Amino acid sequence: MTFTDAFFDRLSAMGYDPRLGTVSGSVRIDIRADGGLRQWRLDIDRGHLRVTRDGGPASAVITTSERTAEAMATGGMNGLAAITRGEIMVDGDLGLALRIGRLFPTRAEAATRTGGPDGGAG
C-alpha cells in the first residue's frame, strides 16, 4: 500500500470533514506512474466525503505524478506550490481543487505521525 492509498483510505473512513462543510463537487485525481494511470474520485457533499476508484467525469481533474502524489499524502509538498511549479495540473474548477488541499497533511501534522503508509500512530 502506498502513502497515497493510505491517504484515500483515511478519507473514506472519515466520511465527513467539517473544513469542507460548505463545499460540494467532485474531484478526480489522475496519478501517472510506471506508464499507467491510477485514478481516485472524491465526491463532496457539504463536507460528506465519498471516495471511489472511479475514472468518470468530475468538476475538477487533478493530474500529477506518483512522486508528487506521495509527497502530498505525506505532508512533504504543498499543493499550491506544486501547481505553480507545474507538478500538478488542474482542469476544471480550480477553486474546488484548491479547497481539497485542506485534506492533505501539513509538514507539522505529518511529523506527529509514526509508522508507514498503513497509518501508524498519530
Characterization of the model:
This protein has about 120 residues and is α+β, with helices and mostly antiparallel strands. It has one domain: Nonspecific Lipid-transfer Protein, Chain A (2-Layer Sandwich). It has helices at about 5-15, 65-75, 80-85, 95-100, 105-110, and strands at about 25-35, 35-45, 50, 60-65, 90. Strand 2 and strand 3 (about 50) form a beta hairpin. The longest helix has 12 residues, at about 5-15. It is globular and about 35 Å long. The chain starts with a helix and ends in a 10-residue tail after the last helix. This is SCP2 sterol-binding domain-containing protein. It holds the Pfam family SCP2. It comes from Micromonospora robiginosa. InterPro entries: SCP2_sterol-bd_dom, SCP2_sterol-bd_dom_sf.
CATH topology: Nonspecific Lipid-transfer Protein, Chain A
Largest β sheet strand count, sense and barrel closure: 5 strands, mixed
Number of strands: 5
Distance between the termini: 18 Å
Mean pLDDT: 91
**Low-confidence spans:** none
CATH C-level category = Alpha Beta
Number of domains: 1
What would you give as the CATH superfamily?
A: SCP2 sterol-binding domain
**What is the 3D form?**
globular
What level of helicity do the residues show? Answer: 25-40%
Major sheet: arrangement of strands: 3-2-1-4-5
CATH architecture: 2-Layer Sandwich
Strand content: 25-35%
State the order of secondary-structure elements, H for helix, E for strand: HEEEEHHEHH
Structural class: alpha+beta
Number of helices: 5
Radius of gyration: 13 Å
